[in-house]
Hints:
By secondary structure, the chain is of the alpha+beta class.
Amino acid sequence: MGTGALLPLGTLIASKAIATILSSGNISNQGNYSPGIQGPWTPPQYSQPALTVLSAQSSTGGSDIYVFDAVFKLAHHRSLKKTQHPVLTGANITDHAYIEPSRVILEIGMSDAMSSFTPGVWVGFSSKSVSAWQILKQLQINRSIITLSTRLDTYYNMLIEEISSQDTNQTKTALKASITFGELLSASVSSVATSSTRPQTTGSTSNGTISSTPPGQQQVNQNVLPSVLFPDAPTYPNVPGAGSVSSTTLSNSP
């Protein structure tokens, strides 16, 4: 939650219920909220540092900081996946087990009758509760990388996997939602440029330039038909489209 339990109740309270509490003296009026008049009420806990903070990169390159009015429950999930097969004695255990991405579930509350922890954050729509829902939805649509700071741990590279909210007659001026964050594992890959000791260049090698050599007379004699070795072999027929294959062509080749 932002700074502990903001209200001594199990859920968010509509403006009339807050007015009743204020008039009863259970909670002192810290803002410009007066009993019977709807307006922003500032809890006294807002003078303390926030325990649960969301930080997401903004479109301008900076960071947008979000603090909820209340966090009723925060669940941390960490797990390790191991092989189900026997592991040879003496083997490196890290080759057979790995840490799965962390998951954090927040049950949060936003009230239109309360001022924001940071002025000017939960704005843009008809009310603060509607703005909170729309901003969370946009962070999920944009796949925004979020840093989630909590009392127990700080999580980096988090994505909003799921948002759920039940809108009832008790939350018509508020938002009570469950948000599931999942860690996005990342790795860095380095590339190293290498060069061959013998670069391949067309037409040349490390021993000189490639050039064609006309066939010698011995090579011509070996390909003549009929030849001394094959006196009964006929000459190659003239096949249309196949070109001329004869000792004349071979001897005249460059």
